[in-house]
Specification:
By secondary structure, this protein is of the alpha/beta class. Helices cover 59% and strands 12% of the residues. The chain folds into three domains: 111 residues, no CATH class; 95 residues, Rossmann fold (3-Layer(aba) Sandwich), CATH 3.40.50; 187 residues, no CATH class.
Length: 428
């Protein structure tokens, strides 16, 4: 599905509505249209899973549009004379009525008319089949992996010849190489088929495109490739500048919420006749294994049980703060100090790092870049109640995708998607 085309069409439709129907000045119309687009984009309106469901698309378009209005209100405060008096209501109705219908139609067209592509996999199904199935699922089965072979030159030639004669196999569009060792046995044949126009793909490229994560098992297969990629990861001065700018802006905007939260915590401590403690401090592992103290608003209280022992319980105030991640606000100071970034793998406590070091290979690659308040894993992955080796391994797969593709673009996209994560209560 060509999502960039869909997004461009939406921007044009919103811009046309504001320019030609509401008669807004072109500059105001462009800015407003882009903000509305970013609002609905941040709520995953263009994700295939959202476009599939009209109801979900309607809900997320509505919330995303309303969130965008918060930003537009700042512009409206200074330039209200340039806005149509019905701007907010008309844009809300326009987006929630038109866009979900268009997206549902686009999804149905894609599902019914987009041709299926069949690929031959050089690799063993029992080892790699689950990952290939995940790719098929992500593409609504528009990409299918019809055969798996542990190849010899004659075996590969036989399958390709069958495809050319349209006999025993479905039309073959390409070959996916999932094992570099197996590739060596048929390297000349693959080069020949590539020249003849057959698509040749490598597993790291297609998982990057479709899964947005890098499973540990794939890294094990292409260890030398990923070793070079991760070891070349480095700090971005541009991202550091954006960290400082965004942190200062967020501190100004969030200061009323921060002050009120601090006051409520103080009153709660006084009410329970406890020592007043506003902040919770904890050692975390940062970039290149540097240890630092992370700061959060206190959300728990130590209480004595009937048997005389003590336990930490979540307070009502703390529950509210955690739900909307307001307890994370003091970490903006950590960002200004350079301990962490706004976006990056979440900094772990020492015990978690020790566990992952002992049980999960390649864990330390996630420490190649600054750790963050929010991150790719927080946006795409939700922790279950029971945290296991498998859960940490899956989290790592999302973190390593961010490390590999570390850039200002991915940084900004992750920040946008965090809005939906917070409002909808996704992630952790």
């Amino acid at each position: 599905m060509k999502k960039l085309t869909i997004q461009t069409l939406d921007i044009i439709l919103i811009f046309s509505f504001n320019t030609f129907l509401l008669k807004l000045p072109i500059a105001i119309s462009i800015i407003s249209s882009l903000i509305i687009y970013l609002g609905i984009y941040s709520f995953r309106v263009y994700d295939t899973e959202t476009m599939k469901s009209y109801t979900e698309s309607l809900i997320k378009t509505t919330v995303g549009t309303l969130i965008s209005f918060i930003v537009i209100l700042i512009i409206y405060f200074f330039l209200s004379k340039y806005f149509n008096r019905y701007f907010f209501l008309s844009n809300l109705l326009y987006t929630i009525i038109l866009l979900p219908i268009i997206h549902k139609i686009e999804y149905n067209i894609y599902e019914k008319h987009m041709p299926v592509k069949n690929y031959l996999v050089i690799g063993k199904k029992e080892e790699i089949g689950h990952i290939m199935q995940e790719i098929s699922d992500k593409t609504l089965n528009k990409i299918q992996f019809t055969q798996y072979i542990n190849p010899e030159p004659t075996t590969l030639e036989e399958i390709i010849n069958q495809n050319a004669l349209k006999t025993k196999t479905p039309t073959l569009h390409g070959i996916v190489i999932t094992d570099p060792e197996l590739e060596k046995t048929v390297k000349p044949q693959i080069e020949h088929y590539k020249k003849e126009g057959l698509e040749i793909h490598y597993l790291p490229n297609i998982i990057d495109r479709y899964l947005k994560r890098i499973p540990v098992g794939v890294i094990e297969r292409y260890e030398e490739h990923y070793k070079v990629v991760f070891e070349n990861s480095m700090n971005s001065p541009t991202i550091r500048i954006f960290d400082i700018i965004f942190s200062l802006i967020l501190l100004v905007i969030a200061s009323p919420f921060l002050l009120v939260s601090m006051l409520v915590i103080i009153l709660d401590d006084l009410l329970h006749k406890e020592k007043v403690e506003i902040f919770f401090k904890q050692e975390r592992i940062g970039q290149n294994e540097k240890i630092f103290n992370v700061y959060k608003l206190k959300t728990m209280r130590r209480v004595q049980k009937k048997d005389g022992t003590y336990e930490d319980v979540l307070t009502k105030t703390g529950n509210f703060l955690r739900k909307f991640r307001l307890n994370e606000l003091p970490q903006l100071i950590n960002i200004l100090k350079g301990d962490i970034s706004l976006v990056g793998p979440r900094p772990d406590i020492k015990s978690t790092k020790i566990f992952c070091d002992e049980n999960i290979p390649y864990y330390n690659y996630r420490l190649r870049i600054p750790q963050g308040i929010t991150g790719h894993a927080q946006v795409f992955f939700r922790y279950p109640e029971a945290v296991t080796k498998e859960i940490f391994s899956e989290r790592l797969s999302y973190d390593l995708y961010y490390v590999k593709n570390y850039s200002l673009t991915l940084y900004l996209v992750t920040l946008l998607r965090t809005v939906e994560t917070v409002v909808m209560g996704r992630g952790k």
